[in-house]
Amino acid sequence: SAVAAMFEDTGIQQQQQQQLQHLDGFFPSADWPVPAELQNLNGHKNEVIQAEFSHGGSRLATASLDGSVRVWQLIHGAKGKPKLFWQEALPPLMVVAVSDPTAAARARQRREQAQALVINHIAWAADDSKILASASDNIIRVWCAHTGTLLQLLKGHSQQAHVLETHPYDARLALSAGYDGQTYLWDITTGVALKTFSSSDTIPLARGSWAPPVIQLCDGHFSPDGNAICIADVAGQFSYYAVGSPTPLLLSGPHDQFFKKDYDPIMHDEAGFAAYMDPPVPCYHLKGQQPLCDNQFMPYADEFQLAYREGRVLEFVRSGGLAMGFQVATYCSA
What we know:
Layout: H1 2-24, E1 48-53, E2 59-64, E3 68-76, E4 84-88, E5 93-94, H2 101-110, E6 119-124, E7 130-135, E8 140-144, E9 150-154, E10 161-166, E11 173-178, E12 182-187, E13 192-198, E14 217-222, E15 228-233, E16 238-242, H3 248-252, E17 258-259, E18 266-268, E19 274-276, E20 292-293, H4 302-309, H5 313-318, H6 321-333
Antiparallel strand pairs: 1-2, 2-3, 3-4, 3-5, 6-7, 7-8, 8-9, 10-11, 11-12, 12-13, 14-15, 15-16, 17-20, 18-19
C-alpha cells in the first residue's frame, strides 16, 4: 500500500506540475517561489478571517472570529532581532454589541446568552487614519487607527454587509453593500449615509418572475478613479453607479452576459484545482471558449461570439453590430 500511495502521490504531483505549466501561459513572467514563514503573529483567540495591509504598507489589520481587530506595526528590529518584524501597535479593537434595552430585557426574561458578534470585513481609509469593520449586527464601526478610539457607528443595513471598501483617494468616503440588497455611500467622518442604492431598482424582469423583491449583494468596488461604483449580486448581475450621464456605449451592451456553464456544478480535481464535473476539466481550461448567453442560457449571435473571442466587443458595439446579434439571438431562442 505504501508503494501504491507513492505512485498516487507522484501522479498528483505530475498533474499539479502540468496545471502550473498551463497557468504560466496566463502569467508568463511570474516566478513561483516557495512560501516561507517569516514571523508568527500571536494574539487572536479564534480563527483569523482577514488580513489587510494599510495603503502605506507599514501596518497590518487582522480580523478574527473572536470579535476583534488587531493592528500590527512594521518596525526595524533591535540588535539580535530580525531587521524587520511586526509587533502589535494598539490594544485589540473589540466589536461589542450595541446596547438595545428592549432586546436585552427580552434576553434576560428568556435566560438567553448574548450572541457573539462576528466581523465580516475590514478596510483602511484612504489615508490610513481610520479602520472600518462590518459586523454581524449589521453595523459598521469606524475606529481611529492611531489611538483605537471608536469614532462612528454606521447604521442603515437591515441584514449583514459583506462588502466594505473605502474610496481610493478621498479618506472621507466608503461604500458598503449587504444581503438586504442595499448599497450605501458613507461619509465616515460624520457617520452620514450620502446615498443609497437598492437592488430592487435594478431587477431586469417583472417582479416575481425570477427574482425576489431585493437581491442579496455579494461584491463591490470603487473604480480606480473613484468616480464609479460596481456592485455584484447573487443572481449574477452587476450594477454600475457613476457620476455624470451614462455613455451610449455602456447602454448599448446586452444586459445579460452569462457564460454557458456559469451555474454548472464544480468540484476539486485531484490536483486541488476547481474543475467542472461535466466535462471534468479545470475551469480555467475553458477561458475564452464558452459562449456568452442571455439569462435563459441561449447564446448570442455568432458575430458577437467571434467579437468576444477576438477582443473586439467595444468595436463591435460601436459599429452597431449588436442590434443584429440580438435579432438573431431572439429568433434562435424562440
